Amino acid sequence: MKSERSERSKNSVCSDAIRLLDLYSEAASQSLILQQAQFQAVVADDAESNRFDLLIHAANERKQNAKYLYLNHLHNHGCSYEQLRNASKDLNAVVDAPLTKTAGKV
Ligand SMILES: [Zn+2]
């Protein structure tokens, strides 16, 4: 008897995985928006630019939680592994890169 996981096509996209990836993407985007806002405040010599610290911390926690919900789903469900793994790599590249690039231009 085949398990549910082994019968699922590696290329099929599960709606739960898509939803979780969307949540992860949205959380990552919110984190970047806050980091960008803090960066702009620092550049503008805003003495209270640290007001973003707690917001960024909370946003990063939401991002990590969303990431692990997504990754745990892939692991437990075994759906669309190849396709979503590539999407996850792209998302991680987007999440990790922009702030470093932006900071490097100053
Ligand atoms: Zn799934």
List the helices and strands and how they pair.
Layout: H1 4-7, H2 15-43, H3 53-77, H4 81-96, H5 98-104
Helix pairs in contact: 2-3, 2-4
The protein binds zinc ion (ZN).
Low-confidence stretches: 100-106
Shape: elongated
Mean pLDDT metric: 81
* Total separate domains: 1
**Number of alpha- plus pi-helical segments:** 5
Give Rg in angstroms: 17 Å
Task: Give the helices and strands as they follow along the chain.
Answer: HHHHH
Total number of beta strands: 0
Q: What are the bound molecules?
A: zinc ion
* Biggest β-sheet strands, sense, barrel: none
Structural class: mainly alpha
Query: Could you tell me the strand content as a percent range?
Result: under 5%
Helix content: over 70%
Report, as a whole number of angstroms, the end-to-end distance.
60 Å
What does this protein structure show overall?
It is a single chain. The protein is an all-alpha fold. The protein has one domain (12-100). It has helices at residues 4-7, 15-43, 53-77, 81-96, 98-104. The longest helix is centred in the N-terminal third of the chain and has 29 residues, at 15-43. The radius of gyration is 17 Å and the shape is elongated. 15% of the residues are buried. Bound molecules: zinc ion. Zinc ion (ZN) binds at residues 14, 16-17, 73, 77, 79.
